[in-house]
Amino acid sequence: KKLKKLLKISNRPCHNMTTCFFRPMGKSTVFKTLPGQKIARLELGGFLNTPQEKIFIAAGSEIRGFTKRGKQFLSFETNLTESIKAMHISGSDLFLSASYIYNHYCDCKDQHYYLSGDKINDVICLPVERLLREVPVLACQDRVLRVLQGSDVMYEIEVPGPPTVLALHNGNGGDSGEDLLFGTSDGKLGLIQITTTKPIHKWEIRNEKKRGGILCVDSFDIVGDGVKDLLVGRDDGMVEVYSFDNANEPVLQFDHTLSESVTSIQGGCVGKDGYDEIVVSTYSGWVTGLTTQPVHKESGPGEELKINQEMQNKISSLRTELEQLQYKVLQEREKYQQSSQSSEAKSAVPSFSVNDKFTLNKDDASYSLILEVQTAIDNVLIQSDVPIDLLDVDKNSAVVSFSSCDSESNDNFLLATYRCQANTTRLELKIRSIEGQYGTLQAYVTPRIQPKTCQVRQYHIKPLSLHQRTHFIDHDRPMNTLTLTGQFSFSELHSWVVFCMPEVPEKPPAGECVTFYFQNTFLDTQLESTYRKGEGVFKSDNISTISILKDVLSKEATKRKINLNISYEINEVSVKHTLKLIHPKLEYQLLLAKKVQLIDALKELQVHEGNTNFLIPEYRCILEEADHLQEEYKKQPAHLERLYGMITDLFIDKFKFKGTNVKTKVPLLLEILDSYDQNVLIAFFDAA
User: Fold this and answer.
1) Which of 241, 406, 414, 669 is at 20 to 30 A from 505, Cα to Cα?
2) CATH H-level superfamily of 9-223
């Protein structure tokens, strides 16, 4: 199947670059090691200022080194309590990180150690041969780059998303040797200069096209203008090439989409002398290349394009190999059929790995669930015990069907099945949750393998699921305060915070007291959480956030038989403040709904009259933008109902803290919302 795919798409042009494929095994194999533990990282190293030709791999807690001919010269057991996740080699210095632990070794001797407050995604060191000092940098999940000096943090750099990959600009740190590239899990890319005193932000590329998270970057002059370009690989299979203009700002030159996430990317000359290439590896093990070599040969005027002899030889070779593989597959299939029918046959459940990611998108306040398997996916069953909405995804070609649920008897709010097309190895879903409704989302992944088997992945929908970690909040906003005191430990209260809010590290941070800031991605309200042993203080400009925390934390404490003393301070001004934040969103959705309702009637008038000249400009504009309006309205199912629900909750929560039950007044509130006027709504809140 893979070789059939090669034959089908090897001639497909990609802007000015062409797709070519390199077989990882065969005559060109230099060496291979015996199977062992999963290899988490591979890096090249060697003496400083010499070609980096030694191969270092990290597997479990062990580092092994090989020469380019395959001879093993190093086996170093680090004795780390966690498996190694990231590694950087600089001469005889080895920089390693596990989930939370960073270690620096020199000649395999321990030099420095650091325990991070959140997960470490990558580690790198600025070029020692240029700066004459060691400057390790950690990319941490809490949207921070930590610059180290020995075992201490020199300073922290806040970045716009959780950083997933670090790389030296131009491969050597740029002109100063201090320039560092970073990529984030939400698809942003940036360049920072790491000076001895403070960081200097040089540029940043926002993810305006809503592409996948960045997994790998490299610097290589693929355009051929003498300036190294930036090569980027994303988790949605997108490969991008950025060149730099006269102001040293990145400009997108090429892009190409693969069907799997790109795990590594490098520029070089591999397939044909004289033609530069970009070589990428993907999640299921493909090694794929984009080359500057022209695949089609231009003929004279009026003649058709002809494939040159070299390409014909390649295709002929691939066809021959395809026939051999088909014959081998047929033989193995016959062997399997014979063995399965014998009296001594034993059934074995085939194993497969699932690469999954469940992340909150700040732009549209929705969750992205990405499922990737190393073989073709047959179907995915989605089940949820909390109310959620499934949103349309343009990249998703699977056919979805919904099953009826009985939410009252078995807590089933959603049952949906996605049936994938042939050779689909990656599925992306979008989900929107409701704050205050918490539970579990489950995905049953069934690949196209025999015998049939599936894996279950669970994802927690948290009580404050639409909140996202941030570095700063506006302290001038009117805040409501919830204070908890009691006989609970710091770690117990931290576990409750982890249960309530996303993006909080599972391990309690170091120190006796901690403060986290959050922002609601839907309403832009904020939350400040400060707690220590025996006390927790939560401040928010949204009363509903405080109400949800009060209910959930009380329930969690009751489960553990811990007595809580709960006190709160409600700021009446915060209600009007929250309504003003909701106002532009509500007004926009009401106007959008009215426009969509008018489209069919206006189209009938247009057909009847033959033109739109008799319509006022506003109605003509609606007809011109009809497709866009309907598409936008379709992408936001239940958006208006969601806003109505938030206003209703705000109304109930405001009076709940006063000890008043106003649920009987909700129908009147909904009538006011149907004929929405901001001043009338605020007056209703004040008078109720």
Assistant:
1) 414
2) YVTN repeat-like/Quinoprotein amine dehydrogenase (2.130.10.10)
